[in-house]
């Protein structure tokens, strides 16, 4: 059983585009400080960033929980939002329900969830329409392990 | 840990420990212990902000002196175009070139052709790039070092094309060794630089390869000598006779007009100057913004190289003079175009080495130990007042907490935790107090 070394929870506010990305940056700073392998940092930050953007774009509020164990980094992103009607579709590259305004800001190209899945060693998505979505992802510290 | 050479030195005798450098440093590379500034060289990016703000004149740029260059048979000056905007308006680039010869150079090299060549290499690189964006110019050595130290993830986005000054160093050695029949090793290519960061990029290139230049002299180092030579010629003349040196319009434009970005008129590009602005933009890139900017040119100095810390004249005056010079400069001559066409297919423009992240933390024991350190830092920072007063000798409470966690500082060095610390500071900083042995509490 992996030993938990560190746990932190950050709040994300929906529609707050101004602060979007700050949680991912915060997580990056922590990982840099610890001196985690840069590839692992990169993958973790992509996951955190894309998940954070999803919450900002679609939900009212959410949290990112960051857990570091001696084996991996686990992220759990839970939001209270509209939920995803068709999970299979949402995981398809290029599929997006983003509005034009979101696209203007450089987001909403349907790469978010596929990108998260691609960068994670473990990935899980639970969603209920009208209630919210929870994404769990893990990145192993030892890339070969 | 590698030994880092830097473009300046702190004179401990003169340093009065007044914290200005520590507060100005963008990478938090300075701590003040027992009233003296100390540098953590692995964090220093040679921006020179400390040098500008030091109230005691204790921080000085290290450039070469003329005598360092005596061992070379043939010495060629490669002036930054910024030099030509420093002098009174009646003094032309021809006069300045004559002045450079007067102080001991055998030739003066205009790098207009190299500006065009580097521009073409950058254009080709950007056009074949598949992402991620933005790509970042490496023209400013401080920006490269900033990426190495604080934004290592963005290293792949640096454009690994040699800047014009480096291409000039290589070409002039080839040319003169051929023309004069001397060994290239006996030729010195010396950059006349607007900042000490370029000096360090020559002495210790970020990519770890060898520079094509032998050193640099600051504009402020040569300015007075050149002016004296021009102003005090033989009898009968107002000024010394100008050289036939012509400063190319391409060279002049390069230092004022968005640098190399002009070669990419149809790309989305952005120019950012001033280190605090650059840091703000890099933070945004790190947050995933600016993904649709293709080419990013950054200068650590506000307004670009024309405000480098080894310049003499005011940045606006310099800009005005260079614009005026530009209006008078001849359009590129056909020979230049032919030269560009001849050289472009035959030369390699990429950097000889690879730019890699700088290792800033000393290797530590295990993961658990490292996580513990971070957690300790987070716990310590909560106990601190958050005033960032700097009296502990660290620039912010956050930085101090990290130092405490790393064992390089003790909580008692914060005045809020120890009255001894206050006494120590009083003895260090208040003149008129009796001198007694003063140890850090």
Structure commentary:
The complex is a heterodimer of chains A (145) and B (441). Chain A has five helices and five strands, in the order βααββαααββ. In chain A, strands 1-2-3-5-4 form a five-stranded antiparallel beta sheet, with helices on one face. In chain A, strand 2 and strand 3 form a beta hairpin. In chain A, helix 1 runs antiparallel to helix 2 and helix 2 packs antiparallel against helix 5. The mean pLDDT of chain A is 84. Chain B has 441 residues and is an alpha/beta fold. Chain B folds into three domains: 62 residues, Alpha-Beta Plaits; 281 residues, no CATH class; 74 residues, Electron transport complex subunit B, putative Fe-S cluster (3-methyladenine DNA Glycosylase II, Chain A, domain 3). In chain B, 38% of the residues lie in helices and 10% in strands. In chain B, the strands form four sheets. Chain B has a four-stranded parallel beta sheet with strand order 6-5-8-9. In chain B, strands 7-11-10 form a three-stranded parallel beta sheet, covered by helices on one side. In chain B, helix 4 packs across helix 6. At the A-B interface, helix 1 and helix 2 of A face helix 13 of B.
**Which strand-content bin applies to the residues of chain B?**
5-15%
Measured by DSSP, the beta-strand proportion of chain A falls in: 25-35%
Number of helices of chain A: 5
The major beta sheet of chain A can be summarized as: 5 strands, antiparallel
CATH superfamily of chain A: Histidine kinase-like ATPase, C-terminal domain
Shape of chain B: globular
Could you give the distance between the termini of chain B?
Answer: 29 Å
Secondary-structure element series of chain A: EHHEEHHHEE
The biggest sheet of chain B, with number of strands, parallel, antiparallel or mixed sense and barrel status, is: 4 strands, parallel
- Note the run of SSEs of chain B as H and E: EHEEHEEHEHEHHEHEHHEHEHHHHH
Number of domains of chain A: 1
Structural class of chain A: alpha+beta
Considering DSSP H and I runs of 4 or more, what fraction of the residues of chain A is helical? Answer: 25-40%
Q: What level of helicity do the residues of chain B show?
A: 25-40%
**Count of structural domains of chain B:** 3
């Amino acid at each position: 059983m992996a030993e938990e070394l560190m746990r932190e929870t950050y709040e994300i506010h929906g529609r707050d585009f101004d602060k979007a990305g700050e949680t991912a940056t915060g997580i990056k700073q922590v990982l840099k400080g610890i001196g985690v392998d840069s590839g692992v940092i990169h993958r973790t930050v992509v996951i955190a960033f894309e998940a954070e953007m999803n919450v900002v774009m679609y939900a009212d509020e959410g949290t990112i929980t960051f857990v570091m164990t001696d084996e991996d980094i686990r992220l759990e992103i839970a939001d209270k939002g509209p939920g995803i009607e068709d999970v299979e579709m949402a995981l398809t590259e290029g599929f997006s329900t983003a509005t034009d305004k979101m696209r203007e800001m450089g987001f909403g190209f349907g790469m978010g969830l596929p990108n998260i899945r691609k960068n994670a060693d473990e990935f899980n998505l639970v969603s209920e329409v009208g209630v919210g979505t929870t994404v769990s992802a893990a990145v192993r510290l030892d890339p070969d392990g | 840990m590698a030994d880092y050479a830097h473009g300046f030195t702190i004179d401990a005798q003169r340093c009065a420990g007044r914290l200005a450098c520590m507060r100005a440093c963008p990478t938090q590379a300075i701590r003040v212990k027992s009233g003296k500034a100390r540098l953590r060289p692995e964090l220093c990016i040679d921006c020179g902000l400390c040098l500008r703000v030091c109230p005691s004149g204790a921080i000085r740029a290290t450039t070469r002196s003329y005598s360092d260059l005596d061992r070379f048979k043939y010495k060629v000056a490669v002036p930054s175009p910024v030099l030509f905007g420093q002098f009174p308006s009646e003094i032309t680039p021809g006069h300045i070139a004559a002045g450079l010869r007067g102080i001991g150079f055998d030739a003066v090299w205009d790098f207009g052709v190299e500006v065009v060549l580097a521009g073409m290499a950058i254009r080709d690189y950007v056009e074949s790039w598949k992402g991620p964006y933005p790509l970042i110019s490496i023209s400013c050595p401080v920006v490269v070092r900033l990426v190495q130290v604080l934004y290592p993830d963005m290293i792949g986005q640096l454009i690994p094309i040699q800047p014009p000054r480096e291409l000039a160093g290589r070409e002039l050695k080839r040319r003169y060794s051929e023309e004069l029949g001397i060994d290239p090793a006996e030729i010195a290519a010396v950059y006349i630089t607007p900042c000490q960061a370029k000096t360090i990029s020559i002495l210790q290139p970020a990519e770890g390869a060898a520079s094509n230049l032998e050193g640099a002299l600051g504009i402020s180092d040569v300015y007075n000598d050149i002016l004296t030579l021009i102003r005090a010629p033989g009898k009968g003349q107002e000024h010394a006779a100008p050289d036939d040196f012509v400063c190319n319009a391409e060279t002049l434009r390069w230092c004022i007009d968005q640098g190399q970005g002009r070669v990419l008129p149809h790309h989305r590009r952005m120019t950012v100057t001033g280190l605090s602005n650059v840091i703000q933009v890099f933070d945004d890139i790190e947050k995933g913004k600016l993904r649709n900017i293709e080419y990013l040119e950054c200068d650590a100095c506000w307004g670009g190289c024309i405000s480098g810390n080894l310049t003499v004249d005011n940045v606006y005056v310099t800009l005005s003079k260079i614009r005026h010079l530009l209006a008078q400069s001849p359009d590129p001559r056909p020979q230049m175009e032919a030269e560009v066409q001849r050289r472009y297919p035959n030369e390699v423009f990429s950097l000889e080495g690879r730019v890699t992240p700088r290792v800033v933390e000393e290797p530590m024991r295990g993961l658990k130990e490292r996580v513990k350190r971070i957690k300790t830092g987070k716990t310590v920072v909560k106990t601190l007042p958050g005033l960032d007063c700097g009296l502990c000798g660290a620039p912010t409470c956050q930085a101090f907490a990290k130092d405490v966690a790393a064992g390089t500082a003790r909580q008692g060095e914060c005045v809020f935790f120890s009255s001894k610390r206050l006494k120590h500071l009083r003895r260090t900083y208040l003149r008129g107090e009796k001198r007694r042995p003063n140890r850090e509490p």
